[in-house]
Automatic annotation (TrEMBL):
Protein name: Anti-sigma factor antagonist
SUPFAM superfamilies found in the cross-reference section: SpoIIaa-like (SSF52091)
Every STAS domain range: 1-107
Family: Belongs to the anti-sigma-factor antagonist family.
GO MF term list: anti-sigma factor antagonist activity
Species lineage: Bacteria, Bacillati, Actinomycetota, Actinomycetes, Kitasatosporales
Organism: Streptomyces griseomycini
Length: 107
């Protein structure tokens, strides 16, 4: 997993899973705490995430809300969009462009 960017936009790549969760949490919390306005999380380079990685995203979302900020997901890959829909988190998280639930392939 790698994260690059600043306190307004971060690009997450690789795998966001149990092995990378602690590092990702540290970087995301720092970006939330040190910035202002929306924090855009570009996931277009993300290969996969597991429940732990999704928990990191949700933790950053809650922390951003407490700081008066908003976490916005950009470039969510289709397989991860399906997971957000299945868990109904697409209703809670801000997703740039939204998720076209009807256009997602069925699994």
């Amino acid at each position: 997993m790698h994260i690059r960017g600043d306190h307004a936009e971060l690009v997450v790549g690789g795998r966001l899973d149990v092995r990378s969760a602690a590092d990702a949490r540290t970087v995301l919390h720092s970006a939330v705490d040190d910035g202002a306005g929306d924090l855009v999380l570009d996931l277009s380079e993300l290969d996969s995430w597991d429940a732990t990685g999704l928990g990191v995203i949700m933790g950053a979302h809650r922390r951003a809300g407490r700081c008066g900020r908003r976490l916005v997901l950009r470039g969510v890959p289709p397989q991860m969009q399906r997971l957000l829909v299945a868990t109904r988190l697409h209703r809670i998280l801000a997703i740039e462009g939204g998720i076209g639930v009807d256009t997602l392939p069925r699994v």
